[in-house]
Structure formats: C-alpha cells, structure tokens
C-alpha cells in the first residue's frame, strides 16, 4: 500500500525582508506622513545616509509650518526588522520604524516587535531618485 500526502497551500502573501540590511545597502530617502502630539498630520522626508546619519524634515499640514530638521544616527535593529533613529538631541526619544519591505517603513508605537494596528499616518515609502531607480 502506498501513502500519498498533500501539503496545504497557503494563499497569504509572503513578505520578504532583507536579512540584516546594512546602512550602506538600505540608505536612501523615504517620504510619507507621520503623526505627532503637536500636529495631526505631517508630511515627512527621511534621508538615511550610508554613513549611519539621518535627517528628518517634517511639514505640518494643519498650519503649513515646517518643523526644525531632526538629525542623528540610524541603525538597523531587531534582526533586520527595524530602523531606529537616535536624534543628536539628548532628551529626545528615539523613533522606530518597522521594515515592511525594502521600500516601506512604518512608524511603531513602542516596539518593532509589536503588531501595528493602523499604519495610516505613520508610513514612509522609498523615494525614487528621478531616474526610476531608488
């Protein structure tokens, strides 16, 4: 007697994240919207430099005012699943973004390992460099 086994097929999409991306490989510009205590919706431009430094510029949509640029260091943490921004300003709290894929960052609220319930208003997408390449 021969036994046949069928494996179930899963129809859920597979999200592939680069294994432990390095600053050199993951560097680039990301844009989108973020929320803040002072402003419900802000346009944001995040520049991650290959040397591990970053610049974050935000512009409040509510009052059409730009906030001062934030600068500091960035790193990939949590086994390649999170980008952490550590501002040069000592009292400021680090920001964390879950790496959804190489082109999408989602700001987290506390930890990159906790599920993100509603990413609206906390999503940054990789900007293209004008030549169609990122």
Give a short overview:
The protein is mainly β and 134 residues long. 3% of the residues lie in helices and 38% in strands. The longest helix is centred in the first third of the chain and has 4 residues, at 23-26.
What structural class should be given to the helix and strand makeup?
Answer: mainly beta
Instruction: List the strand order in the largest sheet.
Output: 1-2-3-4-5-6-7-8
How many helical elements? Answer: 1
Q: Can you give the helix content as a percent range?
A: under 10%
Global mean pLDDT: 76
Main beta-sheet strand count, sense and barrel state = 8 strands, antiparallel, barrel
| Series of secondary-structure elements, N-terminal to C-terminal | HEEEEEEEE
| Cα-atom radius of gyration | 18 Å
Features:
single chain; 134 residues; mainly beta; eight-stranded antiparallel barrel; 1 helix; 8 strands; 3% helix; 38% strand; disordered N terminus
Q: Any overview of this molecule?
A:
The chain has 134 residues and is mainly β. 3% of the residues lie in helices and 38% in strands. It contains one helix and eight strands; from the N terminus they run αββββββββ. The chain has one helix spanning 23-26, and strands at 28-34, 42-48, 53-60, 70-77, 82-87, 95-101, 104-107, 123-126. An eight-stranded antiparallel β-barrel has the order 1-2-3-4-5-6-7-8. β2 and β3 form a beta hairpin. Residues 3-18 have low confidence and may be disordered.
């Amino acid at each position: 007697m021969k036994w046949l086994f069928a494996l179930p097929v899963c129809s859920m999409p597979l999200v592939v994240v680069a294994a432990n991306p390095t600053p050199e490989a993951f560097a680039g510009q990301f844009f989108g919207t973020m929320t803040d205590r002072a402003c419900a919706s802000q346009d944001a431009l995040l520049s991650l430099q290959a040397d591990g430094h970053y610049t974050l510029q935000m512009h409040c949509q509510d009052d059409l005012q730009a906030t001062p640029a934030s600068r500091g260091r960035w790193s990939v943490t949590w086994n390649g699943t999170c980008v952490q921004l550590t501002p040069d300003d000592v009292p400021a709290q680090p920001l964390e973004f879950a790496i959804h894929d190489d082109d999408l960052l989602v700001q987290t609220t506390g930890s990159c390992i906790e599920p993100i319930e509603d990413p609206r208003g906390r999503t940054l997408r990789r900007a293209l460099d004008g030549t169609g390449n990122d």
